[in-house]
Design a protein that fits this description.
Shape: elongated
Mean pLDDT: 82
Oligomer: single chain
Largest sheet: none
Low-confidence stretches: 148-153
Structural class: mainly alpha
Order of helices and strands: HHHH
Helix content: over 70%
Distance between the termini: 17 Å
Length: 158
């Protein structure tokens, strides 16, 4: 059993924990908009829209990472998976801190950018690398089946 296969359950648990925390934030979203802002003013509506946009983007980011776990892209890259786990731990801590300290609604962007967006970028590279690996393997197989030149399979690694 490789080290990555031991890290995948931890990544899954952290993603689910982040998702639960974000749903809790969305459910109690009015608590994070400062009370001195009038509820019928433009500033309240703009802050509320910004907060909802960030929370929904964060939920989509975590959902994409959960879905990619089911496709197995993280099994090929141990260092990237470890980096993502560290970012997920920091994201969970930051989100819990956001909830407990009742930070301003726009502070959620400060959590999403380093811990959500960077994770999504890493996940994109993992998915791209996996697709590139599978495409190059398919090209080798197709070329070897369509050519007359014999191909030695001893140097190919799976």
């Amino acid at each position: 059993m490789s080290a990555v296969s031991k890290l995948i359950p931890l990544k899954f648990i952290l993603c689910i924990a982040e998702l639960i925390l974000l749903i809790a934030i969305l459910r109690n979203r009015d608590e994070y908009i400062y009370p001195e802002i009038e509820s019928d003013g433009d500033s309240y509506n703009s802050i509320k829209r910004s907060f909802l946009a960030c929370a929904i983007l964060y939920i989509i980011t975590v959902s994409v990472q959960i879905l990619s776990l089911f496709f197995g892209t993280a099994f090929l890259y141990e260092q990237a998976t470890l980096t993502q786990i560290v970012l997920h731990i920091a994201g969970c801590i930051g989100t819990v801190w956001f909830i407990l300290m009742k930070w301003h609604a726009r502070s959620l962007w400060n959590i999403w950018i380093p811990f959500g967006l960077f994770n999504l970028i890493i996940e994109g590279f993992l998915i791209g690398g996996t697709i590139a690996r599978s495409q190059s393997y398919r090209i080798i197989c197709v070329l070897s089946y369509n050519t007359v030149i014999p191909v030695s399979y001893t140097h190919l690694t799976l």
